[in-house]
Amino acid sequence: MCESMRAFGGITMRVIMDFALFTQFIINGLMQGMVYALVAVGFTLFFGVLDIIKFSHGDVLTVGAFAGLTIYLIVASIGIASPWVILVLILVFSISVTALLGAVVAKFLVIPLKQARAPALNILLITLMLGTALREAVRLFFPDGSSSKAFPALLPGGAFELGMLSLRFDSILLFATGVAVIIAMHTLITRTKLGLAIQAVAQDEETSKLMGINFEAIVLMTFMLGSAVAAIAGIINGLYYNEINFTMGLLLGAVGFSAAIIGGLGNLYGAILGGFLFAGLQTFAVVVLPIPIAYKDVFAFGVIIILIAWRPTGLIAETSSERV
Amino acid sequence: MNEFFLSRVGVLVAIVFAALYISALLYIESETMVGALVIGLAILWLVGNRTGSSGRLSATIRKNTRYTGTLSLIAVITVAAFFYNDHFNLLMLTTVMIFVVACIGLNIQFGYTGLLNFAGAAFFGAGGYTAAVLTSNTAMPHLVVLLCGGIVAVLIGFILILPVLRTRGHYAAVVTIAFSLLFRTLVEVNQVLGGAQGAPVSGLNLFGWDFNKNFEIGGFEVSFYINYFIFASLLLLISIIFSRTLERSWIGLNLDTIRLDEVAAMCFGIDIARWKTTAFAMGNFMLGVVGAFYATMLGFIAPNNFTFGDSLIMVSIILLGGIGSIPGIILAAAIVIILPEKLQAIEEYRFLIFAVGVILILLFRPNGLIRRRMRIFPGVIVKADTSV
Amino acid sequence: MSDICLRVKRIEKRFGGLVALDKVDLDIKKDEVLGLIGPNGSGKTTFFNILTGIYPASGGSVVFEGQDITNQPPQVVYKSGVSRTFQRSRLCLELSVFDNVAIGDHPRLNHGFWHNIINRRMFWQEFQSCRNRVIELIDQFAPHLLDKMDHPVGGFPMIDRRRIEVCRALLGEPKLLLLDEPSAGMTEEETRQLTDEVLEIRKRKSNLSVIIIEHEMGVISKITDRCVVFNFGRKICEGVYAKVASNKQVQKAYLGEDL
What we know:
Chain B has helices at 2-27, 31-51, 53-63, 65-82, 87-112, 120-137, 142-166, 173-189, 225-247, 250-260, 262-267, 272-298, 308-321, 326-342, 344-347, 350-364; strands at 199-200, 205-206, 209-210, 215-217, 220-222, 300-301. Chain B is mainly alpha-helical.
């Protein structure tokens, strides 16, 4: 998943490490944290409105990234060269695809199951299997889908040079995009009618129905929103590492899910913090701990699971947090 | 008396048919013929359900377990004898049995106790790697090696069980999913375990009998896989008897109660943590032992054998067969393992097909192909006129 | 002191900012049937959940038969002799009548591996004695189920489920039985039958105290020795039914809610 991390695999960087490399790890961690946070936001939104765990979410991200790649290949073949136009097209297309996918899954699978009072276990298993189906569909039906695909570098190259510190333009842009998405989400949830309706449904399904809120429409909107954010996360991931593959969503899904739990499922800001916490733990493992780099996920998951065992309802106490 | 006789003949016919069917399925090479056989069975299945003969048959089987068991054993031996020198088909049949045992273990956790374990393949692999290390580096008797495979899986399980117990509801799934995803990393980086390339495992040798040697019986050269086949049948027999006995015991009652209503279970004295831990350990032990055995049969294992996808396949077998149902597991394991091998056309698509299949089963037939018969303790029905 | 079965002192329960139980004191004598009444949300079921250890209390103590059971886990509370039924019947619907009732015998049964898996002869002996106890209870409270002991509980009407729950709760020979709204979801005729059955329990089982939460005042007036009224998590009144029913505060609590 982190190809650029792996590039450093041969270097022994324990206590003594040069400053440039150190900042590179920090930036890498921040980017990774942003992607995790955006995935975790989806889990927390779905849990908020429907009390369900939608496990196919990570693979929706994969679908979004591959949809972006597809439109890039088409656009490039008809000769549009402006990277900004291509970027906009990629974003619009992949967001539309995942939003549609999210809506279809909600409309034809999740809502009917919820209404039939299917056990939570069945919904978890069905979405888990749906994730497998999506993942396999990408592998089988995307041309040569089983091998990693190069994702185009569309953002301007170059970097700020501040003494020893070197900040790549593309990293700054991607991180800013992530921040913008989070701010937009926050505004949407707290300031708009749709957001208030989502909050109402999350608080109390029955009452919101009585208040005249169209429950199904709100759930569909929430699923579209969460899936769209996943697409953005997928594109950010692709643009940053310049590589995507069909299994990318699997680990991202597991990370996003555990980040959402640690943030107190249903809590938007907790999920974001959870995402950055996970990436922070990974970075800590790489920079400080004397363990093989490949074990950074083992370490991060280990700590997160211990935290979940310690505080099963999340690090941020449920009562004081705003349920989305 | 007549009816009794007829029903026993029915069981006999069914078992002979099953043996012939599985032999034909394995023997035939043409994919069209295999496809026809599969469709034929599906039609027979539907007809059987429609006319109620499946119900009658299963009722008879339940009433005559010893008779059915003996016949099945004879059938298994006959099928093995038929393929006595066919490496490939013996390997496949043995693999099916190994997966059945693994899924019976998983079923104690998931089907009885309701404890989700998405790391079945990882515990299976833990057993396999234990066998790799112990057979290559020590002279430990191989029977002990198999047991160690189980013990290592149990010990790893003990590390995971605490967060599983503490986590509310089905969030516990994240613990085993994370372990399942990370197992590969753990093994790949570890050079003692052979890293990404994998590790060799020696063939089984029990009491001086080398499992990896062909041998002769009355002038016939017999495939060495017969050894593994017989041992796997033994493991299968033991695990079926164990699982059935467990189900019909107070422990089985505790596990079912915990799955169906934890609050009620607590309020009537059942220690949830104790029994979940026990069920987790029992299942992992079976997974570990049979994983170690599988490794000795393959002779070589690699991290790729034990991925999250493989764990999902194990869960799929249970869901397709019918949660909690051992006959269901046997049928589903046979389908899931044999079909992709015989039909190369679907081999590439198997994960997709099984995933969609499981979704459809969960939506439209949540009890699976063969639903679990709940335990009925003997002598609990009191006829009105003989009441106490 | 010795004739006190259960002594609850200043028990408190808060959920976040909400006070569900506010320093409640309660004593029950041996062999007493106590009615627990009060409007919805007055903390009656929470009270049961704290007694049985499902929720930890925020303060106060519970002493049962001279033994402090405050905040003990439910399985320990059950073993000490407190048993209950649930407002929304909590049976394992997939399991048979026998299995559901037999769970009540849990503390008495041997759960060892050797006993359950290997030494089946001993297991079946123990099973027989458990079976006899189950059948004896079913014969008392639901004889028409005797030839349906192998049927899954999910197929029976509510009244039968309640009876099965009562049998399950009595199998372990508790000294205190908590009945949580046994008449919920039943017709008048069924409620009357149930009332008779509770009276029957009383007659047959000596040394058994009962606390019953009930909305049907007919049931309460007929079977209780004494009543306690909860409102907003506080005990507002206590005494024999006739006295409680004429209490102004109680009337206000009920009427204030109804109107």
